[in-house]
Amino acid sequence: MTGLSLTTISxxxxxxxLPLSSQLSTWATVLNLDHRRVLVESGLIPExxxxxxxxxxxxxxxxxxxxxxxxxxxxxxxxxxxxxGSIVHAIALQAEIDAAAGSRALREDTHNGTWRARR
Length: 119
Known about the structure:
By secondary structure, the chain is mostly helical. It is about 50% helix and about 5% strand.
């Protein structure tokens, strides 16, 4: 009926996982919530407050996961732990992908047995 598995619903309601952004519309419909408000609260779209909201200072170059969660007003400890774990995992996966891409950027020069940058 909702398009969400019972496991997904249970784990989300128990605070063990967060809904995927692609599921937010479904959650909003099922819970009879305003779709736009759900997207604003999730941080997927900006809140339209007026011209003054456009006058922000420059964002810092990097934020720690804790700083980002605080900026997003995520205060629940279970949600913070879940999100932090996802962020740490994503950073590790990206590092692996970057390392693999870096090693593929080199190729063996078959003429003299050395490695050189791929062109």
